[in-house]
Amino acid sequence: MLLLAGSVPVDKLPLLVGPIDITPQGIKIDGHDLEINRGNEAMMTAAALICREYGMAKPVGMVAGDIGNRVGSEAIYKYLAKNLPEMGVEVMTLHYVMPDINLNKKVLATIDTMAEKPVMIADAGTMYVAKAGGDAAYYDVFTPDLGEMAFLADDKADHPSFTRGYIFQLEKNVPELIKRAYEAENTPSTMFVKGEVDYICRDGEIVETIKEPCIETMEPIGGTGDLITGMISGLIYAGKSPLEACRIAGRINRKAGELSRPTPATQIEEILRFLPQALHAVLEQLG
Amino acid sequence: MKWFRKEKKTETSPEKESVTKGLLIFAHPTTVISVEELLKDEGYEIRVVSPPPSYRTGCDLSVEFPLAVEAEITALLNKVDLLPLDVVPITSKGMEPLQFVRIKEFVGDYLMIRAANMKMTVDKKDNRIVNISGGGCPDVPYLATEMIGKRLNHTPSPGEVGYSLCAYSLNTSYEELVKAIGD
Q1: Tens digits of per-residue pLDDT, B36-67?
Q2: Contact A141, B107 (CB under 8 A)
Q3: Cβ contact B163–A97 (<8 Å)
Q4: Which domain holds residue B166?
């Protein structure tokens, strides 16, 4: 099973768990329609599209409403800590949960009891709490953007907002940030660093960069990183190695961006629409 | 598959110095924005900093203040219903939130300002927010839903409706945009 878990910005929405259906408006989980927004809906749609293209079972979504008041995030942490071993999860992605070091450690303690640890992908709040708690090594893939990369490189920061200025200023030297983050053990084995140039890293080494096509206007668009995280999740579930999944997802994201001819005002669903077409183009290109 | 735990870092002992500062601890980082504004307006010398490790969840902010005025400050906060969860004396300095911002112009009259990990982009023709990007706390998608498509002067600020440190940084982007192009 591919499990995709995280909050959605719908106040008081209870915890829902179920297969993710793609609908004309967005996605449906456990009978509830969720509109495509940035964040988990975009990530889950991208993962579900990849699973569909590769003939895999639908991913399972676990969502709860959270507008920042921690309610949905706590429900997700607690459900995972209690039920994860019985769920049959092979690949698990956690995205947009309020960082809570203690609750996250409870989830990790449950994972310690499992005979087979799932492949674990973290982005957004889950990546922050993994780093802040000193637990990055539990995970298999992180997908930081440049601001988050500086945070991972700063051993003293608990959140990207506390990244020290001199490290934030190193953003022009991404390889240095990557080196610092790996040396401080703030990373899992594989990282996809999103930016004008995408860096794919493994065990401290930059193994590949993706630069083309360079669509400058994608930077302001909220949700492009969510698509990458979702695609990496779906591709790993479809049998790709984390490294290969990063290589393919990075290319699909840029191709879909190019096909959508975006402006800084473009919304993520306009790019998402081109994902299947971009996937076919990239797979043809990669042979 | 094997994985390993990072070794726990040993706590460094606090510096030997007299305790003259305290921290006001709050449930949400954005409450701190209101407290910061109020106390600065009243002339108190305060700083917004990270709380001590025992209070950290991974998304926290607190207010450092001179202990000599603790009674005055708590009375003032009590009046406006902004009482802290806790008040603790401190001996070492907390980290301050990143204040650097990056500004980027795009063809078509768009302006993007990034503070820490949070980006906000507006169309300068009508000061309308067209995109919000970055961040990882659950109120980021919520804030995007609330703010995108609205003019800077017709949207709630992230400091008013957000809860998290991401909202705190987004509030910095928002304030810098207002400074740059007006609301």
Answers
A1: 989 999 999 999 998 888 888 888 889 999 99
A2: no
A3: no
A4: 101-181
The reply to whether B136 and B83 lie within a common domain is: no
**Structural domain count, chain B:** 2
Count of H helices and E strands in chain B?
Answer: 5, 8
C-beta atoms surrounding B26 within 10 Å: 24
Domains of chain A: 2-286 (3.40.1190.20)
- Calculate the CA dihedral of residues B135, B141, B145, B149 and round it to 10 degrees: 30
Q: In terms of Cα–Cα distance, which of B28, B4, B133 is closest to A124?
A: B133
A209: its two tokens: 């960069």
* B50 vs A contacts (CB less than 8 Å): 158, 162
From the CA of A98, how many Å to the nearest CA of chain B? 5
Whether the complex's predicted ipTM is more than 0.90 is answered with: yes
- A128/B177 Cα distance (integer angstroms): 26
Query: Could you give the CA distance from residue A4 to residue A40 in angstroms, rounded to a whole number?
Result: 8
Site from A161, A163, A190 to mutate, B interface, most B CB atoms within 10 angstroms:
A161
Q: pTM of the full predicted structure? A: 0.91
Q: Which of A145, A163, A223 is closest, CB to CB, to B98? A: A163
Same domain, B33 and B86: yes
